[in-house]
Amino acid sequence: MRLFLYILRDFFKYLIGALCLTLFLFILFDFIHKTTRYFPRYKPSAVLVFKMYLYQLPAHILQAMPIAALLASVTCMVLLGRTNELTAMRSAGMGPFRIGAPLFAGGVILALTSLVLSEYIIPVSSGRMHYVEEVQIEGTPSFEIAQGVSWLRLGEMIYNFGTYDLELQAFQDLRISRIAHDFTPVQSVEAKSAKSLGRDSGWALAGVSVMDFDDQGNVTRITRKDEMVIKMPVDVHKLQRERRLPSEMSRRELFVRIKGEENSGRDILPLKVDYHLKLAFPFAAIVVSLLGLKFMYSSERSAETARSILLALGVGMSFWFLQNSFLALGRRGNLSPVLSAWAANIILLAIVMLDVWRARVTSR
User: Fold this and answer.
1) How, if at all, do strands 170-179 and 185-196 pair?
2) Residue 328 counted as domain residue
3) Residues 135 and 8 in one domain
4) Which residues of 216-225 are buried (b: 16+ CB within 10 A; e: fewer)?
5) What is the dihedral of CA 150, 155, 158, 162, to 10 degrees?
6) Are 57 and 23 in contact (CB under 8 A)?
């Protein structure tokens, strides 16, 4: 048990160092990039810049978790080998899987942490980050109707929305059409503005034109009114443009969005891939944590630490390339969403287990 905690402690010590270094590089490169055009253009205050990067931290931590776990695992095993501690453990009869148990436990802890970040923290922090960046810094409207949802059908009613003023809680330009089962128009209501009277109180329309149609779709009567109150079963906030990327949403939010867009004719394959990636990406922390086992039999005092770490980085880059390639295939429909999200993890896990088995057989 002491050896387990000893290796686990070293793993997390190197993990925290690698995580801090990775986060520093992420923020540094992004800051340098934004100082060329973005900051001079919008001239944000230091407080807004600080808040923007603060809200970005959870997403950066999630993205950095696999590479930090990879570096921590390899560094831990390499340094234990250089001090002959691995040799002593193996001489005492400890096999690779017993020595690697702390790495597996550390990977499980990281995977659970990644799930908490992905499901509960990042959806909130990313929304705030986009608000600071797009609204407070860039000056875009705080409320925008999402592209593609200006039309909404609820049963026999079709609603066409114009722009929405959040402060006035009013639409500019609204059209409501009632259609028959064969899509023939029955009645159409057009209004220059529609103001909310509060929850369950309806909408006050101004500048109203009501058109009635016959069975053939011809206009039979036009009635004009200055004002008119109607009930409109529309949740305005559900029409709001989503500023977050699918990767910044929770699995539950993605599931609801996929179900809502299944019959809309839109391409939802990318959403399905992101939905399964929400579980596969945290699992990657477990897989790359086991990569340190690869260096268990080669990490003696004569081993070159820098070479081993560079090799680990090469494996990490290969894993990143494979994952993005499979994700691209999944989003184009060439692979199933489940396989595209999990394929890179499965391949790397198989390679690590095969390599450890071969090294163990060779060392006997």
Assistant:
1) antiparallel
2) yes
3) yes
4) eeeeeeeeee
5) -30
6) yes
Tell me the C-alpha distance between 282 and 117, whole Å.
10
Task: List the structure tokens of 196.
Answer: 């909310």
Per-10-residue mean pLDDT for the chain, 364 residues long? 85 92 91 92 94 94 89 83 76 75 90 93 93 90 62 79 73 87 87 81 88 87 89 70 84 86 71 92 87 64 58 77 91 91 89 71 57
Q: Are residues 48 and 184 in the same domain?
A: no
Q: Which domain holds residue 189?
A: 151-239
Specify the pLDDT at position 317. Answer: 80
Pure H helices in the chain: 2-36, 38-42, 46-82, 85-91, 96-99, 101-116, 122-130, 251-261, 269-289, 305-332, 337-363
How far is residue 177's CA from residue 152's CA, in Å, rounded to a whole number?
Answer: 10
Q: Are residues 182 and 300 in the same domain?
A: no
Distance CA 158, CA 233 (A): 11
**What single letter denotes the amino acid at residue 86?**
L
Using CA atoms, how far apart are residues 17 and 230, in angstroms rounded to an integer? 61
Q: Count structural domains, the chain.
A: 2
The answer as to whether 253 is a domain residue is no
Domain contains 145: no
Backbone CA torsion sign across 308, 309, 312, 317: negative
Residue 166's contacts (CB-CB under 8 Å, 6 or more residues apart) are: 141, 142, 143
Same-domain check for residues 186 and 280: no
* In-domain check, residue 106: yes
* Sequence-separated contacts (24+) of 90-99 with Cβ below 8 Å: 94/3, 95/360, 96/293, 96/296, 96/297, 96/356, 96/359, 96/360, 99/7, 99/293, 99/296
Q: What is the pLDDT of residue 330?
A: 92
Give the rounded distance of the alpha carbon of 205 from its chain centre.
39
